[in-house]
């Protein structure tokens, strides 16, 4: 007979997988909602744009929802190949592998490039779920810092070169960046790719926000850099681009045949990516060429509104973000976690409050980002205006002697 004392112990890995930094205050937010408080969510990046009809109308009428090939259907890899070709990146279908969202692309890419005990270099603040994937793979992440007063530019090639050890297997970048909104130039990425090539390690680039670039910047992919076929592995997703997070489709794109081979075999283990959603994704072939223009313009207006509003609050520090739909701001509140928790639990204006993501969870180095928050701008402009006013009043109230 089993007693409670003999309960099997879960793995160290299972114990150390971190909870999501973005959902940290969810319990407090749910309690506030139960009291009838309206919450403006500046904490999470769920796009509010309609998924295009071209995609939604494509769901097939199969009588059997069958498995598809592990790497994705031929048809869907062709539409992805055509998408990349329009971006100026020539890829064979065999250089593209469909994944269950960008999340699985990141996980498989990391697992294919590094063994347990190996290291990967990341720039912090970083997309927090990377830590989750690294823990699953037993990979140690070594952070290099980017700073709010420098617009969170990625460190120079020399800084990356100095940080590489015998155990380093990859550098991971996110461009455009979540959570900072920083966009790196081709020269900046090329400089890091050169260091990686020289040290025979991989450069994994998360480009799930590729199209979300502002002020006339053009979308581009690190795969368009020449001479890095064996070095660069791109993780991509349809979630943000087509406002289709629930379709759970993404891909790994790389000309490194061994990486595609390894991640393909990992994919064979999980059999298939969603079948109906792949049929739906074929609809992107019909999207007008300027489909993203209006969406990007809308996000740019939201960014401008929020930037103007937040920089008018005394003590709030941020640089104008250049891409994605997030940024990190330093707030004059000392402890951003305590402030954010208090705001969502105890502060309201006309029955409404604001939920932020405290930024410490986006850093690996303890004590960094304590007075910073990540803000996502996926709300309509009027809601963003209200949110800024509530935040202004909350900061004033918090700082009252
Ligand atoms: C930087 C970044 N990479 C990857 C993902 C994963 O996206 P998905 O798995 O929905 O494709 C996200 C989602 O928010 C993200 O922000």
Structure overview:
The chain has 401 residues and is α/β, with parallel strands linked by helices. The radius of gyration is 22 Å and the shape is globular. 36% of the residues lie in helices and 15% in strands. Helix 6 links the parallel strand 3 and strand 4 (140-145). The protein has two domains: 12-50 and 291-399, Alpha-Beta Complex (Aspartate Aminotransferase, domain 1); 53-286, Aspartate Aminotransferase, domain 2 (3-Layer(aba) Sandwich), CATH 3.40.640.10. The protein is built from 13 helices and twelve strands. Pyridoxal-5'-phosphate is lined by residues 45, 101-103, 106, 127, 174, 178, 206, 208, 237, 239, 245, 250.
Key features of this structure:
401 residues; alpha/beta; Aspartate Aminotransferase, domain 1; Aspartate Aminotransferase, domain 2; 2 domains; 7-stranded mixed beta sheet; 3-stranded antiparallel beta sheet; 15% strand; binds pyridoxal-5'-phosphate
Number of domains: 2
User: Helical element count?
Assistant: 13
Heterogens: pyridoxal-5'-phosphate
Main beta sheet, described? Answer: 7 strands, mixed
Strand content: 5-15%
- Strand arrangement, major sheet: 2-8-7-6-5-3-4
SS class: alpha/beta
For this structure, what is the CATH homologous superfamily of the largest domain? Type I PLP-dependent aspartate aminotransferase-like (Major domain)
CATH topology of the largest domain: Aspartate Aminotransferase, domain 2
């Amino acid at each position: 007979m089993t007693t409670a004392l003999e309960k099997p112990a879960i793995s160290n890995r299972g114990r150390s997988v971190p909870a999501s930094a973005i959902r940290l205050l969810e319990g407090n937010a749910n309690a506030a909602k139960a009291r009838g408080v309206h919450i403006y969510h500046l904490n999470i990046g769920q796009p509010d744009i309609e998924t295009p009809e071209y995609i939604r109308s494509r769901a097939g009428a199969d009588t059997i929802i069958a498995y598809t090939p592990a790497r994705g259907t031929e048809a869907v890899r062709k539409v992805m190949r055509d998408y990349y070709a329009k971006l100026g990146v020539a890829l064979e279908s065999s250089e593209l592998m469909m994944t269950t969202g960008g999340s699985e692309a990141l996980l498989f890419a990391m697992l294919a490039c590094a063994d347990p005990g190996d290291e990967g270099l990341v720039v912090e603040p970083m997309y927090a779920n990377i830590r989750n994937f690294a823990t699953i793979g037993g990979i140690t992440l070594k952070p290099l810092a980017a700073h709010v007063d420098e617009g969170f530019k990625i460190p120079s090639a020399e800084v990356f070169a100095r940080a590489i050890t015998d155990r380093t297997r990859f550098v991971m970048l996110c461009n455009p960046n979540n959570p900072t909104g920083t966009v790196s130039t081709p020269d900046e990425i090329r400089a890091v790719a050169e260091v990686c090539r020289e040290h025979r390690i991989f450069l994994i680039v998360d480009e799930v926000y590729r199209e979300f670039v502002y002020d006339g910047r053009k979308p581009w992919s690190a795969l368009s850099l020449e001479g890095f076929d064996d070095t660069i592995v791109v993780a991509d997703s349809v979630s943000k681009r087509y406002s289709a997070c629930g379709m759970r489709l993404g891909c790994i794109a790389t000309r490194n045949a061994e990486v595609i081979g390894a991640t393909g075999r990992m994919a064979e283990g999980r059999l298939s990516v969603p079948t109906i959603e792949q049929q739906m994704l074929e609809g992107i072939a019909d999207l007008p060429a300027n489909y993203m223009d209006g969406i990007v313009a809308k996000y740019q207006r939201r960014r401008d509104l929020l930037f103007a509003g937040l920089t008018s609050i005394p003590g709030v520090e941020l640089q104008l973000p250049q891409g994605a739909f997030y940024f990190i701001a330093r707030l004059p509140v000392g402890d951003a976690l305590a402030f954010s928790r208090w705001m969502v639990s105890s502060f309201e204006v006309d029955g409404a409050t604001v939920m932020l993501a405290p930024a410490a969870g986006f850093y690996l180095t303890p004590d960094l980002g304590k007075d910073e928050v990540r803000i996502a701008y996926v709300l309509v402009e009027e809601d963003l205006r209200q949110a800024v006013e509530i935040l202004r009043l909350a900061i004033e109230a918090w700082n009252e002697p």
